[in-house]
């Protein structure tokens, strides 16, 4: 069975491909199906934005799709960048600028780092919306992952804010975990697990 994941983010695609492989399903991304629209994500929540993407793409392709809207919420920044995570520093999807901006915003607060260099608690959040265009029915789920923002980029795996997201239980950043390790604990994996549990019922 083939699942269309309505995303142009290759980092997300890789993680979904591995997660769905365990369920014996193959993943196709927007690049694979040759439809990569510019979508204005003007919702107020992760769920709303995931639904906007799912609806546009499911209708266009006339097939069921799963859309992912996700981001990082930093406690000391009152939940920023949140739904603006992809364009935090102004340029959509520029991970290195976004990470710089995050460190700059936290450095303005003059927080004393802890022994691991950590400055604030944070959560990764992921909303998944599965949409069937014939009925317009959706399934909506959310997953999250708790960690800390550390003051130094570390690790080469993953994408986005992974190099700054520190996991005390591993003494590593998310970018120092390989994809299988990340897929055991990530916000995306936790959301997908909830979706799967609803679908098998
Ligand atoms: P699509 O909308 O096409 O799926 P996108 O990259 O624009 O791709 P989002 O609007 O959901 O996706 O933005 C998500 C941003 O949040 C992304 O650019 C990362 O900076 C961050 N993010 C989400 N999940 C992440 C993860 O697992 N690790 C690190 N950063 C993540």
From TrEMBL:
Gene Ontology CC, one term: cytosol
Catalytic reaction list: dITP + H2O = dIMP + diphosphate + H(+); ITP + H2O = IMP + diphosphate + H(+); XTP + H2O = XMP + diphosphate + H(+)
CDD domains to which the protein is assigned, alphabetical: HAM1
Family matches, as Pfam families: Ham1p_like (PF01725)
InterPro entries: dITP/XTP_pyrophosphatase (IPR020922), ITPase-like_fam (IPR029001), RdgB/HAM1 (IPR002637)
Enzyme's top EC category: hydrolase
Record's cofactor remark: Binds 1 Mg(2+) ion per subunit.
Residues at the catalytic site: 69 (proton acceptor)
Role noted for this protein: Pyrophosphatase that catalyzes the hydrolysis of nucleoside triphosphates to their monophosphate derivatives, with a high preference for the non-canonical purine nucleotides XTP (xanthosine triphosphate), dITP (deoxyinosine triphosphate) and ITP. Seems to function as a house-cleaning enzyme that removes non-canonical purine nucleotides from the nucleotide pool, thus preventing their incorporation into DNA/RNA and avoiding chromosomal lesions.
Protein name listed in UniProt: dITP/XTP pyrophosphatase
Organism lineage: Bacteria, Bacillati, Bacillota, Bacilli, Bacillales
